[in-house]
Amino acid sequence: MTGQIAIVLFDGFAFGMLLFLLSVGLSVTLGLMGFINLAHGAFGMLGGYVTILAMRQLGLPFLVALPLAFIAAALVSVVLERTLFRRLYRAGELNQVLFTIGLVFVATAAATFLFGTVQQVVILPSWLRGSVQFAGLNFTTYRIFLIVVALLVTALLVFGLERTRLGAQIRAAVDNQRVAQGLGLNVERVFAITFALGSGLAGLGGALAIDIVGLSPSFAFHFLVYVLIVVSVGGLGSITGSFVGAALLGIGDVAGKYFMPEFGGFFIYLFLVAILLVRPLGLFGKR
Amino acid sequence: MSPMTDVLVTEGLNKSFGKLEVTRNVSIALPQGARHALIGPNGAGKTTLINLITGQIRPDSGRIALDGEEVTGLAPYARVKRGLTRTFQINTLFPDLAPIEAVTLAVCERDGKAGQFWRRLPAHADAIDEAFAILTQLGLADVAMRTTRHLPYGQQRLLEIALALATRPRVLLLDEPAAGVPKDESAALFAVISALPQDISVLFIEHDMDIVFKFASRIIVLVSGAVLLEADPETVRNDPRVREVYLGQGHHG
Amino acid sequence: MSATDPTTGTTDPKIWMRRQGRWSAFEILAWLAALTPFFLFPTYLPLANQIAIAALFAISVDLILGYAGIVTLGHAMFFGLGAYFAGIISVYGWGEPITGLLMAGAFAGLIGFIASFLITRVQHLALIMVTLGLGFLTLELANAMSWLTGGTDGLRGMNRWPVFGQFRFDLWGYTSYTYSLIVLFICFLLSRRLVNSSFGLALRGVRENVKRMPAIGSDHKWHLRKIYTISAAIAGLAGALMAQTTNVVTLDALSFQRSADVVVMLILGGTGRLYGAILGAFIFLMARDQLAGVNPQYWYFGIGILLMLVVLFMPKGILGFLSGLVSRRGK
Description:
The complex is a heterotrimer of chains A (about 290), B (about 250) and C (about 325).
Chain A: H1 2-33, H2 40-56, H3 62-83, H4 93-115, E1 131-134, E2 137-140, H5 141-163, H6 165-175, H7 177-182, H8 187-213, H9 219-234, H10 239-259, H11 266-278
Antiparallel strand pairs in A: 1-2
Helix pairs in contact in A: 1-5, 1-6, 1-8, 1-9, 1-10, 2-3, 2-4, 2-8, 2-9, 3-8, 5-6, 6-8, 9-10
Chain B: E1 6-17, E2 20-26, E3 29-31, E4 35-39, H1 46-54, E5 61-66, E6 69-70, H2 76-81, E7 84-86, H3 99-110, H4 125-137, H5 153-165, E8 171-175, H6 183-194, E9 201-205, H7 209-215, E10 218-223, E11 226-231, H8 233-238, H9 240-252
Parallel strand pairs in B: 4-9, 4-10, 7-8, 8-9
Antiparallel strand pairs in B: 1-2, 1-3, 1-5, 5-6, 10-11
Helix pairs in contact in B: 3-4, 3-5
Chain C: H1 13-20, H2 25-33, H3 36-39, H4 45-67, H5 76-91, H6 97-119, H7 124-144, H8 146-149, H9 174-195, H10 198-208, H11 212-215, H12 220-246, H13 256-269, H14 275-294, H15 296-313, H16 317-330
Helix pairs in contact in C: 4-9, 4-12, 4-13, 4-14, 5-6, 5-7, 5-12, 6-12, 9-12, 10-12, 13-14, 13-16, 14-15, 14-16
């Protein structure tokens, strides 16, 4: 029993780290600009398909395809941000929700048109396959890799936010946009960069997700709900919040499906509603 | 001053945000028919005091009483129902409603008719007539059926007051009613305010000292969250501490 | 649509307000057009029935979203509750449609009333997420209670009696569409009265500036709870109509897809004008019927592009856009 629990915790945490990569960008951009971007998951899907293409068509190794997924998602997102999304910053949450849902529809249709509805698989390098034995339990190598990548990204994010100039600007803009603007900060530029970085992380998450959950055109919609839960439970603009929210959701989701499959996500949604009623701004939200 | 004639009384109001004390031991009294001004430098906590009195913010300690009854624990809307009404420094209107609709709504809310979904709005003829009378009183009859967002700024400021009057206030707290209005127009606006019936007691925040000295019967000076002085205009005008506060302000500004 | 011109209007506010709520020729024409499937397109009666039900559902969402400004992504919860309630009582031996319909609406309304206390606690993203969470919660619950709901297989053994003991639900959909259209029309009349009442004005006040409402003495959360309850009941009626006229209730009735679709319909048509809900349901389902037959992906692509265009260029929806064109030409 304890072994089962340990494995569920491990798998859940790995899944949570995936969710963290997929959602942290949305959390920061939402906190920064209040822009509800439901198409965030679509950038994850884009990263996934870029990885598939890079490996299959160009024959690139997995570890080279990952940064490509990041770059592709970042570039596409910043183009969309500069041309379309910026028109909606003042348009109200409903319009943002609908516009970006429209974008998800289009992205889903485009993915189906280009790749069909089949589940894509990724062929991992041999050193990422198999599992590691520890204390009599099997830990999947790939999930360990996933956790390591996510922790590295977290460390980079925290370091970047605390120690770099851009990080200080982002923090200032999240805290109080008007003051930041008054101090001569180019909030628009900061936001475009943040948006690109956040979407790039989603792209990376999408690439890493293929081996765990597969990749099909329904990816963008399927993960949308997970991502929104992480962001709202964690609290807008908080990296710690996203991390904790993603870990809780990942573990809760895996544990629920393992121990009480008939109840599916019931408890996940129960916790979502309960947490938001007690803390409407999320666990780590400030505003 | 016996407490019976004071419509609004606050006793020892305190409020802090973190380490910042924004309201310190404020005890003021507003007698029936008052035309009091609340003045003080920027950041003195004038708007916070109005927020405390009307319930947007809860005080850390202290009491607020209206007509001798404590209202400290009441929700903002419940205070309005008892006659404690405010206006806002920044226009807080209904942009896509016509003024007549907005004021009719306020009248219906006061009479407890706003929840009736089975009667058509024109059936509330009394409420509409009263709303139109209020708008007429404030010189807004001509624009009553326009959309609020298209009204000139000065008329929007008047609509702020019209909405408050529709609640039939006993006490009216005006947060810089003339904010952003050109000087010649703001005098006209204050003429409207001072012409309000005597059964409404008024406390207003205003920066223009000419207007304050002209329209206020008494002045409360707030500095750093505490009452520095409460007196008649003549006394306030000659008080060295008030001069210090305002001259100091002038040197920096 | 309504022929109001505030700048040249009368000086009597009561006459002006009466004019706001007056029936226009467009409206009468629209309702006459709703009768044409009986005579001109009888093969489309089942689709017309779907549109009437979707329109009723969209009206229920318009009441909270368009009039009171509550953004919801979980309203299928009430649609599904109504559908399951009507379906389940017919499985257990009560197949009388009209009482079944009313009880289903009342049940959804009751749950809506309870949920309204949660809904009014939160705003913005948290509000969207709570509506979404409650929707998923209900879906998971229905899935887990398969002994009652049939789970993923759907509800089996529904038994519906003729309407008024006279009109059987026929295969072609004459009875179904008549029944749904009458319910839609009655609910529309009630909603129309509601939005033109002082309560409707209060809801617009909440939508326009929720911060001001307490300052005019309004306990606006009660208004919100009330409209949320009414909206839930109407959504329940729509769900019950679907159960009774199609004889099918599956978990699909509670799905997130349905919650999202209805908001999309409403936005396409235009919020805060009731007819937007009807027009949106019509366009959405007609387009889906035509396009999805060719290739479902075209449908998604088309609806996605359309949504983006509407948000960018027609902030008041297609109906608002059209009425803007008409009134511009009128000047």
